[in-house]
Design goal:
9-stranded mixed β-sheet, binds coenzyme A, alpha+beta, Aminopeptidase, globular
Length: 217
């Protein structure tokens, strides 16, 4: 897949908008979702002003989670990376984030459409360590799939660390197939059924976006 040039990200987000550790505000926007352990999150699309939330979430990831997400050691997110990860156009680049009740970012899933194959997109998902194993990764990827279907994306690919047991389990749960292996990596592919075949899509239409959604296993 051809990866876009991060340094060419749109410059509208000022460098100083990155303020890790700024006071979080209670989450009031987004769809309320109750996870399987009873904890509550709000889920919404990422915005260009979310760089501080992203930086804060990254700071709370364990070194292992960072390595699994970025396929190598990663200690910081640069201002250019924060700009890029929050400059979503909701068509070729979508990101959906989860906020805890105190307004902190606890998980994010994104796709980036393949420049050479517009029906395919590469995905990445990250859940802050304290929030893993509650079903949030599944929830975010299900919602991301619904968004992708509506903009003509028919399959997701994910390049992962070959040792990433969590993502292997998540991939299995979502019906992914192992598409290939590289040195230390595994690539998964998820075929996306058309929107009208998605139960989640029907339920979210029926319930309305502001109703709490209780998540099943
Ligand atoms: C991979 C990751 C996103 C999973 O998120 P999560 O919210 O913990 O996942 P869920 O709770 O939705 O679990 C979904 C399935 O994944 C599998 N799974 C999750 N964590 C697992 C673990 N530690 N070991 C084995 N399987 C695991 C299980 O099959 C689980 O289904 P089940 O709970 O019904 O058995 C999360 O562990 C993470 O952010 N890891 C660090 C970053 C990363 O690896 N990103 C992937 C790069 S693409």
């Amino acid at each position: 897949m051809t990866q876009p040039d991060i340094s060419a990200a749109p410059p509208w987000l000022p460098e100083r908008s990155y303020q890790p550790g700024g006071p979080p505000r209670p989450a009031t926007e987004g769809t309320p979702v109750v996870l399987r352990d009873g904890s509550a999150v709000r889920i919404r699309q990422v915005r260009s002003t979310d760089a501080p939330l992203l930086a804060d979430g990254f700071a709370r990831l364990s070194p292992r989670s960072r390595r699994m997400r970025f396929l190598g050691a990663k200690t910081t997110l640069s201002a250019a990376e924060l700009r890029y990860y929050t400059a979503v156009d909701h068509h070729d680049h979508e990101a959906i984030g989860a906020l805890s009740p105190d307004g902190r970012g606890v998980g994010i899933a994104r796709y980036i459409r393949d420049a050479d194959d517009p029906q395919a997109a590469e995905i990445a998902v990250t859940i802050v360590d304290d929030w893993q194993h509650r079903g949030l990764g599944t929830e975010l990827l299900t919602r991301l799939s619904d968004r992708a279907r509506h903009v003509g994306i028919h399959r997701f690919t994910a390049l992962t660390d070959a040792e990433n047991a969590a993502v292997a389990g998540l991939a299995r749960k979502l019906g992914a197939r192992l598409a290939g292996r590289g040195p230390g990596t595994a690539e998964y592919e998820i075929a996306l059924a058309p929107a009208e075949y998605s139960l989640h899509w029907w339920f979210s239409r029926k319930d309305g976006l502001d109703q709490p959604v209780r998540q099943g296993r």
